[in-house]
Amino acid sequence: MKTTLLTVLSLCAISPAFAGNHDPKVIIPLLKNAKMTLVEGIDYAAKLSGPVTSAKFEVSDDGKLILSVYTIPEGLGVEPEKATLTEISGDVAVAPFKPEFEVFTDKEHIARASVHMTLLQLSKFTLKQTIRRALARQAGVPIDVRNPRVIDGRPVADVIIATDDCDEDNDAATVRVDLLSGATRLLD
Question: pLDDT per position in the chain (188 positions), as tens?
Fold first, then answer.
């Protein structure tokens, strides 16, 4: 299965990764049309393409709610330079979900995906477990796991959550999760 997927991915047209709107105020109103949650998208991508290192909703220029998930088909045990760093993305208002696959070839996305991979290799938690920890701190609907990165010498991931008490401004809460300890902190 993994070999077949790698062959398919290598045959896909390679294009620069989509850079959509990540503003929760734009994303939250579109969630009602989504046929898949962020966590369901992580499960879907993991079955197709291996461990997930980043996941988010974003809005395309034409107003579509897009799910974007970074994966590592070879698994987290491989060295970054030997990994196929990929993105699975598509419109989540359409059922069934028909994502496009991209193998990163540009420096920006390879660097970002390599950092994600390395931090998840260090972590005691999968991306899904990281989201669960954030939801234990702040109830709501997860919409984004911000690029896992190092802050103050600690690997962290910021989980953006559309809160149950969102006002008409569609505000969201951000919970920072320490990828080593699992400690959470609600950011202002």
Answer: 444 333 333 333 333 344 578 999 999 999 999 999 999 999 999 999 999 999 999 999 999 999 999 999 999 999 888 999 999 999 999 999 999 999 999 999 889 899 999 999 999 999 999 999 999 999 999 999 988 999 999 999 999 999 976 555 678 999 999 999 999 999 97
Other CB atoms closer than 10 Å to residue 181's CB: what's the count? 12
Contact present, 100 and 91 (Cβ < 8 Å)? no
Short-list 9, 1, 38, 4, CA closest to 101: 9
Dihedral of the alpha carbons of 47, 75, 58, 160, in degrees to the nearest 10: 100
With beta carbons less than 8 A apart as the criterion, state whether 135 and 142 touch: yes
55: helix, coil or strand?
strand
The whole-angstrom separation of Cα 65 and Cα 151 is: 29
Q: How far, in Å, are 123, 130, 153, 188 from residue 180 at the CA level? A: 5, 10, 11, 22
pTM over 0.90, yes/no: no
